[in-house]
Design goal:
The chain is of the alpha/beta class and 204 residues long. It has two domains: 44 residues; 145 residues, 3-Layer(aba) Sandwich (Glutaredoxin). Helices cover 43% and strands 18% of the residues. This is Thioredoxin domain-containing protein.
Length: 204
């Protein structure tokens, strides 16, 4: 009867296979552990792992007349809003601006954050009249406008709600470093605004 003989080469090969198996299992475990840790970190901090889609591509004009695209906010966390060009004559819209300005003051010194307000008006000078009474750090808070219909489409997609051209919405939306919308917050509810500021710090 023939007996199989285990050679040194066989032992070396089996040892290598075992090491490879341990390596790949370890790598898979590390990936699962890291993903689970990040997910529970978000949940524990009250943020959650739910997302609401990506911000569509855009090219608009800011209050200084500069062309701005979504790429200008890459690797930054930003808060978006949709305001009316008649904001001075609308108390709810004015309250929205004032609360947004308050958030701006809290995070403006962090280079990893930005504020973005979409304005449904093609005249850049209209933007300046709206922000003339606000303490705005222009490189941090961008007031963007362009074709009213395109602005409205962008705002509707970001806020996931049909909005009138030239109108506004009292919700703010939070966008992460990858251009993904992470949450919505009522600007007229102080507790939600506090949560927004907390979530910004979580993402940064």
């Amino acid at each position: 009867m023939n007996r199989s003989i285990i050679t040194k080469e066989d032992v070396a090969m089996m040892s290598k296979i075992n090491k490879d198996i341990i390596f790949w299992f370890g790598l898979i475990f590390l990936g699962i552990f890291t993903g689970t840790t990040l997910m529970f970190r978000d949940v524990y901090q009250g943020f959650g792992s739910v997302t609401f889609g990506a911000v569509p591509d855009f090219t608009l004009t800011d209050q200084l007349g500069n062309s701005v695209t979504q790429d200008d906010f890459s690797n930054q966390v930003w808060v978006g809003s949709y305001i009316s060009t008649n904001c001075k004559n609308d108390k709810s819209c004015q309250d929205l601006l004032e609360m947004t300005a308050s958030i701006h003051q809290q995070i403006k010194d962090d280079p990893k954050t930005r504020m973005v307000s979409l304005i449904s008006h093609a005249d850049i000078f209209s933007n300046k009249s709206i922000i003339s009474t606000l303490d705005v750090q222009h490189d941090h808070w961008k007031f963007l406008n362009g074709d009213p219909q395109l602005i409205n489409i962008l705002a509707t997609r970001c806020l996931q709600k049909k909005l009138p051209i030239g109108g506004y919405d009292t919700r703010l939306f939070l966008v992460d470093q990858n251009g993904i919308i992470r949450g919505y917050y009522q600007a007229d509810r102080l507790e939600e605004v506090k949560k927004l500021v907390k979530d910004i710090k979580t993402l940064v």
